[in-house]
Specification:
By secondary structure, this protein is mainly α. The protein contains 13 helices and no strands. The longest helix has 29 residues. The relative contact order is 0.22.
Length: 306
């Protein structure tokens, strides 16, 4: 089996797993009434345990990276994991998982904006065009409120939370990039870095598990989906995705990442009764197109610098 085929298989497994995340998170918090803050805090610890077990099995468990970069890791954990996860799960109370996934794909746009504001990187024509395309997609989705009568008057709140989810994920990508680049040639080192970020995030969110008074899971099915999200979406998917990146070209990974939105939509249509409509499709296509163009533009600049 070729490296590219291995990478593609690893990527599809990761993306299929992430495609379950949105529908499961919406069902457990919206339909089941479980407190979304408890869900994401508990999910982080479960995912951390999966990464811990992987590194232990690989005999690669150490805290060298955490000790070396603890300030940077704490920043990434607080904004890119804690805040992003909180916004993601609260968004699922107001919006379908597919919509939240699409809005989270605004993250490359926010990475480009942060690069301009903080690093003073002059935007390229492709980046400016992508910004216009992504804002057009967001506008289509915002104006598509009538296509989602089941979401009621809280649709606007959900859109704002979804955009903030994209912003915080963009912060995760932007602030973690310098750390990731130092270890990009070693998938195990990347997992060690991810474990460090998840461990700090879990510790920061621990008070929510014990002090927050929101509703906890009280049925076997609710506990099942909580464990599933922690084990697979917060643990296994990250392992497979990072190993996929070791085998796949960046352009390929940027394109197939759209499968996460596709799998989310399929799962919601099959299990939660989501009805696909024009504003969802058109807005989603525009945002995903902008995301792809920005990823491709970023990769082209890296090749020129190499």
């Amino acid at each position: 089996m070729s490296d590219k085929t291995k990478g593609f298989i690893f990527a599809v497994i990761a993306l299929f797993s992430w495609g379950i995340h949105g529908p499961a998170g919406r069902w457990i918090s919206h339909d089941g009434g479980v407190d979304p803050y408890f869900v994401f805090a508990a999910r982080l610890w479960i995912g951390t345990a999966v990464l811990f077990g992987f590194l232990l099995a690989k005999k690669a468990l150490n805290f060298t990276i955490l000790k070396k970069h603890w300030k940077h890791i704490t920043l990434v954990a607080l904004i890119g994991i804690c805040l992003n996860s909180a916004l993601y799960h609260v968004s699922l109370v107001y919006l379908h998982g597919t919509l939240v996934m699409i809005l989270e794909n605004l993250s490359p746009v926010f990475v480009f904006i942060l690069s301009f504001l903080i690093l003073k990187v002059k935007p390229t024509k492709i980046q400016l065009i992508s910004l216009i395309i992504s804002l057009s997609g967001l506008y289509v989705i915002m104006m598509g409120k009538g296509s989602f009568p089941e979401l009621g008057d809280t649709y606007g709140i959900g859109i704002v939370l979804g955009v903030l989810t994209g912003l915080t994920f963009g912060c995760y990508v932007f602030f973690s990039a310098t750390l990731m680049r130092q270890y990009k040639t070693s998938p195990v080192s990347i997992i060690q870095l991810l474990f460090s970020i998840f461990l700090v995030s879990s510790i920061l969110m621990t008070p929510i598990i014990f002090l927050h008074t929101g509703e906890k899971p009280d049925t076997t099915l609710e506990w099942f989906w909580l464990l599933e999200m922690g084990i697979f979406q917060s643990g296994v998917a990250y392992l497979f995705w990072n190993y996929a990146l070791a085998y796949l070209p960046v352009n390929t990974s940027a394109v197939i990442f759209a499968l996460a939105v596709f799998f989310t939509s399929v799962n919601e249509v099959l299990f939660l009764g989501l009805k696909i409509n024009g504003s969802l499709v058109l807005g989603g296509v525009l945002i995903m197109l902008a995301s792809y163009l920005l990823s491709r533009d970023g990769n082209s600049k890296k090749k020129k610098l190499a």
